[in-house]
Design goal:
alpha+beta; GMP Synthetase, Chain A, domain 3; three-stranded mixed β-sheet; about 20% strand
């Protein structure tokens, strides 16, 4: 990524995080903007979100984000219009890193419990 696309991605991540926190409905799962990747022509921004909640809540939250992409883009445009001529199209993707990390922690703790300490058996 070039320096420009990195700066754009960073600005979009900050602003989208604020929008998720303040503008969207607060009932339901916690939605966090984990990463933003912007194409070289700044035409598309792929937003990776982490959703903490039940599986049903995660599915509903992703559906909501995809349905409300236009309104989220409009809110984003109002916030950062002085930075861009054209606001990138938004694509939301779910990031499963949190679930993977939790699973790894569970596996490690189960191994620690089953392993005898100090070499004793």
């Amino acid at each position: 990524m070039s320096i420009r696309t990195e700066k754009v991605a960073s600005l979009l991540q900050q602003e989208l995080g604020a929008i998720m926190q303040k503008e969207l409905p607060r009932n339901g799962p916690i939605i966090t903007v984990v990463d933003v990747k912007v194409t070289a022509d700044l035409g598309i921004a792929r937003i990776y979100v982490s959703i903490i909640g039940s599986t049903k809540e995660q599915v509903e939250a992703m559906a909501y984000l995809r349905e409300e992409t236009k309104s989220i883009r409009k809110i984003l445009s109002a916030r950062i219009r002085h930075h861009f001529r054209r606001i990138p199209e938004l694509e939301f993707h779910e990031d499963h890193l949190y679930e993977r990390a939790t699973r790894i922690e569970e596996l490690l703790s189960s191994v620690r419990k089953s392993t005898p300490e100090n070499g004793e058996e």
